[in-house]
Task: structure prediction
Amino acid sequence: MPSCVFRVATDPPAERSVNPITHYLASWTLASLPGGLRRADRAWILVAGVAPDLDGLGIVAELATRDSATPLLWWSEYHHTLGHNALFGAVVATGVLAFTRRPKVAGLALASFHLHLLCDLVGSRGPDGDQWPIPYLWPFSSAVNLTVPWQWQLNAWPNIALSVVLLAYSLWVSYAAGRSPLEPFWSSGNRALVAALRGRFSSLRK
Result:
């Protein structure tokens, strides 16, 4: 098992990943760049950008069984492992290609997937200073565990600053282009948000 695996025996697992909203906004920033993408294309790129954290769903089983004689340590053992590797990225990109038949979208989906890994790589240090490496070649090899010596903590100012910048950019694009982070999955919510922003800052458009 890769060295990034750890166990939590009695206490609920503590979240160690970059905020899912930050991951979403980072992927949306990539999907919102000019390039003739359609709404469905942006949706697939966003899905790819949050897909790595599917391996965190094991927390449900772990919390449900933590007081039993045989607790399921699916979160402690597999979060940042099952979904945070090159093989899963290839599966995601191949799935996007199969559904869209658009290599460009599949390529951007793969880039979005790796953007997620990059965010976790540089900004997921725990409060105790412990790093959580990315087992990039799992399950074929445990020899490559990606780390950076300067990885900052989850609550460090770079993570906060990144979230603020991504949010500000998303609001600007929503206002200027009429396309918000809600648009790929919720058209009516997108229209309501854009209308609210343009109504609030209508003087800037004159």
Residues 20-150 form one domain. Residues 103-123 form the longest helix (21 residues).
